[in-house]
Amino acid sequence: MSSSKFSINLHGVAWALSAIISLLLVASMLGQISRLEFGRDSVYGLVQLFNVNLENNVPTFFSAFMLISSAVLAAIVGRSYKQNRKNDSRFWFVLAAGFLFLGYDEVFQVHEQLGPPMRVLLGGGDLGFLYFGWVVPGMIIVCVVALFFMRFLFRLPTQTRGWLLFSGCLYFGGCLGMEMVSGRYFELYRQDDLMYNILTTIEEGLEMTGAATLIYTLLKHISLSSTKIGFQIGGTELVLEPN
Q: Does 232 have pLDDT greater than 80?
């Protein structure tokens, strides 16, 4: 069987993802300025196409792509651990399933369905930072997951553990932390104004940066553990080696 090797430049991946995220955030903010300050709320559909606060558009699918890519990479690490009879392979597979769900949720906004019933449970009225009620079960789930993975995290190489925690802080700092801030702002002023859109852009920016950092972290871990990403197409084996 013939074999072809391709190298993945980690810094190149990081720069490419950072550039795309920056362009998407700038495009979204320019669209909101056009809509709110100049009354041009479409501009040939580009405002909606790049609005990070809407669904089924370019930022949504890019975020989902990064999360699904992270799921694939985590599954590759898990398979490598299992093949080499290393401990903790199951944790990698659970991580892969979690990233896959987050990618699914990014497109279909499953978490938003928890908002109305949670508002009822919380008594309605002024909920402050809990205005978007889904953040309550969201925080509970994050705490449970953190406890589940705690021992696993401390068994990881120091560099991998640090980057993994950093990516998680960025991602959940956006989808939970900034969601609470933007919810409080919207409850106070009830306006889809420029400041509200700045807050939601920061929120989505943190989420996307967290997902990009996660991809870098997983590729770096694969590189440090000398794990090769192999695919077989016909009679040719393609091997991708992060460097």
A: no
